[in-house]
Predict the structure of Thymidine phosphorylase.
Amino acid sequence: MSEQFDAVDVIVAKRDGRRLADEQIDWVVDAYTRGVVADEQMSALAMAILLNGMDRAEIARWTAAMIASGERLDFSGLSRPTADKHSTGGVGDKITLPLAPLVAVFGVAVPQLSGRGLGHTGGTLDKLESIPGWRAALSNDEMMRQLEDVGAVICAAGSGLAPADRKLYALRDVTGTVEAIPLIASSIMSKKIAEGTGSLVLDVKVGSGAFMKDAERAGELARTMVELGTDAGVRTVALLTDMSTPLGLTAGNALEVRESVEVLAGGGPQDVVELTVALAREMLDAAGRPDADPAAALADGRAMDVWRRMIAAQGGDVDAPLPVAREQEQVLAEADGVLTTLDAYAVGVAAWRLGAGRARKEDPVQAGAGVEIHARPGDTVRAGQPVLTLHTDTPERFGRAREALAGGVVVDPQGTPGRRAPLVLDRVAAG
Ligand code: URA
């Protein structure tokens, strides 16, 4: 079969800063999925997009082409409205775990199709897989049934959704082209639109532990995704939230599940509770439940009831003890003073090196590995006091984890106690 375009012409057009025609975009995404456009050609195009950008219409068309590469789910048969949340990824970001059951308390179905972690940010499925018996893979029918019966499901995205993105994301990961805003926005939104949710709340992370290190670029990513969602008929809102320091007091799979259960039991760290409630309010508002009171449902155990049913429905034993790493070591404060920096990226890399994350996507993760945090930025500490506990099954990893933390834990003898950056930095809605 003769092809409609030549890949080199498409690459050259974007290399020279021209906009791509709709037909070129449709063709190149489809031909790449079919294997006609080679990896090296798509790499060159991805780099040209990273350097020269795309306008709003090009990004919308690219997203539509990625959606068209696979199946679309349809939740219109459910008796409840649907709402989903997506985080661009951070350290200690376990919010999906308490959030999905919390929103379901109010009769809104939450289809949370999640991924595994790669690099220094953890994956929701890796966290839940530390619960004995819990199963990530569900058929579409099982997912629908659970959404109708329990109201919340967190499971692996099937391979049928946006296969073009799956292939392109793996390529970007090894060609230095992850950070392009048009490519990130279309990657995330193609999966969310294909998933068929009625409303979507985006948690766009800003800071050292996030893809976007500064608020300006994070704001541009948020606006691009909100426009894409809105144009596709999905009620979409984004919150920009701080990721300069880890969220909560744990980073690592079973450690984060334990903390999420504390939040569902009405306790847990204040920042995790604050962000869970803020995102729940946005999801409930977008799904037509503006009067719901998520803070009350978290405090009085209603969200915990849904959590227990959600985990049990996927084979998880909610009462089984969570795995604990075989070895622990503490990181101590070096002086009296105020902890002024606890860097999210440093903690994320340390948790990853301890075994909580993977270097290649086929690597196993250690359920018990990670970092436990005893002091937060703004806290006063004394020399010799534990700031972190490192957990791993393989103690030879402690050295590399400590190297990752060098410069990331700063105690200033002259620091001002109690100063914490706000967690929610901005909100972006359709204009
Ligand atoms: N998450 C995605 O799904 N895609 C990206 O490009 C970045 C984060």
Summary: The chain has a mean pLDDT of 95.
